[in-house]
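Input:
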Amino acid sequence: MPPIIDSSECTACGRCVEICAEDVFYGSKKGEIPIVTYPRECVHCSCCVYECPVGAIRVRIPLPAMTVYKPTQEKSQ
Amino acid sequence: MEEQMVETDVLCIGGGIAGLMAAIRASELGAKVVVAEKGHALHSGRGRDGNDHFETYIPEVHGIDRAAFIEELLRTAKGEVSLSHEIFRAQFAKAFDIVKLWDSWGIPMKYKGKWEFAGHSFPGRAMTHIKYSGHMQKKVLIQQAIDRGVEIMNRVMGFELLRDGDGIIGALAAHTREDKVIVFRAKAVILATGKCSRLYPSLTPGWMFNDPHGGGVTGDGRAMAYRVGAQLHNVEMPQRHIGPKYFPKFGQATWVGVLKDAQGKPVGTFAPKPDRKYGDMIMEVNKLVCEQYTQSGKGPVYMDCTDMTDEDYEYMMYWMVQEGNISLLDHMKEEGIDIRRHPIEFATYPLRFGGLIVANAGAETNLKGLYAAGDEAFGDISAAATFGWIGGENAARYAKEIEAPDVERHRATIEEKKISLDRLRGRQEGPDWEEANIALQQVMYDYAGSVRNKALLQQGLSHLQRLKKKIDTTMIARNPHELAHCLEVLNMFELGELVFIMALDRKETRSLHVRPDYPFTNPLLDQAHIIQTMDGKPVIQWKPF
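Output:
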């Protein structure tokens, strides 16, 4: 569920908790690795990914939100 | 429930483009300003992750006749809302000043040293939108606000206005992380709470936050304004948008491609091949095109960029980032989707609430001390920036003229509201906000959806009112985060009810308000359809634009 925090990389700086507009990290404690309390409220804007100073966050796009595309087209066609 | 009192001259509710611009301008004119933002101002509102189009008149480009530019805009109307000429005149008298201001603040408004006009315009007609690099715009605007002494209170959701006589004297807000009510004593309030994303189901009904606005905008400003007697219009007129299927994002004019059917035939006539200057205007002429193709057995419809040049690809990728679509690009990359090889399916996005607060060209409402800007009353980034600025200016001037209001006279109202929050927090069992929101979405979709009639609307209204009565006494909030969602849902129930009332009253078919029992557009109703509460009852009037 988005976002996913790599606890081996996370420094618990709290930047993602501070800036997430949807507050999906609600209830996270200062100085601890954030918890994703409300993953279904993530709008996958990826602002936490880009704000994380050590690159410890990735966002997993939920299956229902996957982009639909036409797989077969080649440029030469 | 703990209480905190905050005194200010000007309170901006919502920290998006309009709210921040209002705050910056009001503060510049010497007012003490607070911005109450229910999320975090760095990523909130329609400009949350960026924008790349700004509608503006530029004398050196369009010629000195501003009126001719406005006429051209109206002739090729692509706007989302019906606004008066007076509003357009005010916007385009100021928009270019804002463009230059933003550029000086560090939001790059030129591309490679020049004004770059592209998108949102028909081939052969006047170009109306410049491309700008807005990816970091919120950061810049926040810094400008802080530099002028504005206090930004994040995680603070304004939910009720305080009215005294014919004016507004403050507002109540709930903290979204603590059990705390904030009482704002304010000489002027600017509402800038943005669109409303969760009244109707999303493109992915099981994931209601999967919306191009994000899931956090819920029409709070319109609901609280209505409750204290401000006028709303356009309430029953839904809006649609168009974009990538299942990963809903704004930026239709950022795509350099052609909308095509499955056989590769363009669905419109405006773009035979990818064109970075014009995009494909079929998406602005008919936002229903994807839905219509699907329903008539001709779908799916794709955004086909496969014929684009390498230069156009680089160009489009740059602007996608500026528009705030970086997560979509990351997702496509991760999935091995390459727009140079793969047409992307586009969808018509579901209905959304289109109601606005009635505000004049000064962003003033019918109540003294109450202003509205941004998607709350106008629409698009240029209008948000411009009327935010104008509203901030007028609010600061008004605040200078009046004495500090006495909110203690309204202590009984404040206590009553606090008790209602305590009840939500105190209940152990009952529907939570999500259950209530789903019930609301389903009644809106089924009874005030894309086709309406008297019987459907009456049935939907009575069911909605039944649900509303139930949640008033049973809804639960397990923590302050959920409490804020409950307040959002209560606001949306209020707005949903108004949609039904106004849709019943609009006895015609017009745009996306489709009533087979009144199948024609009545030219006599080419007016603003306004609703406001008087003595606790909704009063409707028609008024020329």
